[in-house]
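Please check this:
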Amino acid sequence: MSHKSDHLNTILDKINADGGYFLPAIQRKFVWSDKKIVALFDSVMRGYPIGSLLIWKTKQKLSQRKFTEIFTKDIDPRALFTPADEKEKHLVLDGQQRLQALLIGTRGTYLGKVLCFDILANASDPKLTNSDPPLKYKFEFINPDSDGFEHRITVKEMMGYTNAYKLRKFCQKKLEESGVIPTPAELEQIEEYTAAFVQYFASDQLINYVLIDAVVDKDKFTESDIVEIFVRTNNGGTKLEKSELLFALLSSDWDAAVFKINDLREDLKKNKFEFQQDFILKFCLMIFGKKAAYKVEKFRDPEMLRKIQGDWAKISGAVTNIVDFMPAYTPIDDIKLFTYKNSALPLMYFAYKWPEKWKTEKNKQQAALFISKIATSSVFSGSKDTLLDLLCDELSKDQDLDAAKLLTLCEQQTGKSIKFTEAQLLANSYKKKSKVLFLMQAMLTGLDFRPSNPQNKRDIDHLVPQSLLKKLEIPKSDIDQLANLAPLTTKENSADKKALPLHEYLELIEKESAGAKKLFMENHLIPEPPTVWTKETYATFIEARKKLLLTKAEGAGLLDKKESIQAQGEISSEDEDDEETSD
């Protein structure tokens, strides 16, 4: 890789030109607003850095996508794809939004409007200084059909000048034609602004970029390296997936498979399970014995495509079966509650490999146990593809699903325990609501966590309300601790009740239904609350509930006294982001 720089107008000249700058054939739209484009042009005029580009120079035979000069909301990225060829090309792996914005502003239109420059605008105008971010220069998209547009100074016209004197004369002429005679102060501003425009848009090498030259250094980076670089460096717009560039590297034969995958994802999304394309492809690798690690060469195998297309009904059926299973057998009815999504892959593998076995109640109960134990531990935190491969090897055997055996393999492979010490269990908090929900399900066996009525769905909230504890100046960590949390239904946590002190809440539900107080306290493991809340009485209440929770946790098999296995639960810093990674 080499670091380079170039003139902005030179870069723009090379966009969509032979051997010039194109985009990988990914179906991602331009997402910047007109205000963001205007802010970019203001940055250029000030000489501010506008970020570095990442360019891949290659002769590889693959499709590419043109940049568009004419932006409309309904533009289909696929209409900009070009046939695959082996010509030299420069693909922009990072910087699409910036380059596209510059191209639209200098040579095209945004929703039918042209970017204009008000060269006489006062830099101290509150409309500029109070904008976000604060601006100095007034760029604005104007409808070309509006009155007086012919007298506007467009950026496209200004880009035709590389000499500041000639640009200044052109701007003065446009103003005079519109009946505006600049004052001496305005003439000075025109001179200053036109000089800055030529300097930053034509003279200075304002654009910095990193070039990956695969024409000269053919063996420096593999295709898998390029995919990984693309994902890691592309931080603008919507989060990108490895598969997006992967399919740009493959032939158009994959188009039909991609459409099937995306149709499945749309169907799952309707049920609140929006899995990424990468997830579905990883599943395909696993079921066809390719192992879970993501490598481009695996998808270049024609047999892989043939298998996916020929077996798609069974593949999509296995995925759908597990998605349907989740809300029926676990508290997960929304992917937002699914902390470790990759833990569903072994179950999908089992449902694909042994569809008749999956139909049995026994195996579904074992699957629910596996998911609940994974959800409350961190054995899948930062999970590696090697763990998925190990689990699939076990599930490939002609036998029923055994949650205990799978969990033991997870512990052995990761060096982590699915159980907690007392301190680790109590360290879980409101910050990890989905994990707490599973913990409460394991401990509070008298409650229904899979109700048929959505009004009875449970969500984690505070027993002693936050508003009360904040007034007592209780630290947030003490407010959000496990011992102050409970899985409450919509009715139990209604707006008229949730702010009540706990003792008043219990009195209210007892008035509504005789015996409700006792039942609620038993089901939620609540000690007798104080009638006057202070720092001291809150601390006493919390200690009493901790003892009740720990007793239940021990009975539910959640606690592990062994010191030889690595710590689990929120007390472990590595669990903070719940990242699932690949080897």
Q: What stands out?
A: The radius of gyration is 31 Å.
